[in-house]
Design brief:
By secondary structure, this protein is an alpha/beta fold. It is 31% helix and 24% strand. The protein is built from 13 helices and 22 strands. Helix 1 packs parallel to helix 8, helix 3 crosses helix 5 and helix 3 packs parallel to helix 6. It is globular, with a radius of gyration of 24 Å. Its EC number is 1.6.1.1.
Length: 464
Amino acid sequence: MYDFDMIVIGSGPSGRRAAVQAAKIGKSVLVVEKGRRVGGVSVHTGTIPSKTLRETVLNLSGWRERGFYGRSYRVKQDIGAADLLARLHKTLDHEVEVLEHQFSRNGVKTARGEARFVDPHTVEITEENGDVDLVTGAHVLIAVGTRPFRPDYVPFNATSVFDSDEIVDLPRLPRSLAVIGAGVIGVEYASIFSALDVSVTLIEPRNSFLDFIDKELIEEFTHELRDRNVGLRFGAAVSKIELGADERPICRLADGRTVHTDMLLFAAGRVGATDRLDLENAGLAVDHRGRIAVEPRTLQTAVPHIYAAGDVIGFPSLASTSMEQGRVAACHAFGLEPPPPPEFFPYGIYSVPEISTVGMTEEEVRRRQIPYECGIARFRETSRGHIMGLNNGMMKMIFSVKSRRLLGVHIVGEGATELIHIGQAVLNLKGTIDYFIENTFNYPTLAEAYKIAGLDAWNRMPRA
């Protein structure tokens, strides 16, 4: 009846995982991608570019060695935009090659063009040269992701005022940078440019930021930013953005302050890239941010044979969870029952320093009125931390006093996004503090912080 068993619109993390999963169980799959190459926002302007940029900055700036050699130490004295982009392009080329090979060996077909619904089972694909194709699918997965929110009052020009997709193609390094929006993206870029010794001002209308992270970790991270002279302008909205005669942006804040910088990054939110899909033809609607509502367990939309996954459905908007959502959607579409998702998944913020968290924050534990105790480990307390020259970084673990079970792990510092998986495993396996007390960790490693924090909490807990 249909040309394909599944049509996947978008080739980001959720789209590619769904396509490969469906193909591996013998289904015919077509992936439609409007970009010039597969990979979606994650590969070309989002996750991979920003993390590659971060790694390049840390390497060329000598950031990791400054604990030994001082703040003026650099691996390369004069770092330009071309230095950052060289590694970026190599990484992106490799990512695309891997993905294309993955599609090829699994028999996934691809089409380049913009997709729109004609009816619930029919998708029209308009190619760059204007050619139009109609394809039908028994199932459709919408995995188009998001694009930056671009309000009219921001004078975007791609030379001195950028959105979060454009910043990866920076034409030159600024001497100073204003970042509007202290969400995950804004914080990541603010801290990355700060590591390059760019003077950064982070602007956020709310009085706090990253509210889903444990407050003690945010206090530690805020201290780190202030120590690097990052200007924090919280509690004041931007009332106006102007461009001076030299195209330098001028931010006028509602509290009367003015921020003058060489460049400006607007990173205050993203919206679902759904406006050109003609979703009404498929019987679907979106919310005010272009997101599609789904049934959380199956990823089905209001039209049962149409699924949606990834950033287009909203929180948590992580590449890791998007991949799993795509797989779950494909399995459900073809009658396979995937195992239930774990109760807790890790959240990683690739700032400088990294932040990663899994489980409940101390604030959540208090709200639930669970008797608890915390253990803290400072990276400078570990021998590995000494070897690496770390002056900062901490791990916080939260345990139930009654059951002794681990409730949450929160890390800020070098390697946080790697270290968190030990805590994730213990948490989802319902492990207790005894795991950390009784087990031996490689020495010297930063993972030894689990032992230190575990003992710290154990020493504070009441004895039976």
